[in-house]
Amino acid sequence: MKAKDLRIKTIEELKKLENDLRKKMQEYLILKKIKKLDKPYFLRQTKKDLARVLTVINEKLKQKWENK
Asked: Around Cβ 49, how many Cβ atoms within 10 Å?
């Protein structure tokens, strides 16, 4: 997931994606705890994707407030 692709989406779409990523991350953390996570890079990638989404949301909100 690239930030360039995320900037095209609306804030509502990004919020939905944020919730989906948080749920996925919780699943990966549970699997990690019980030693069933075969590919640990899934957890790292999900964290990075979540950070990108939150960054783009904050950028959009900042632009919205500056334009008022």
From this structure: 19
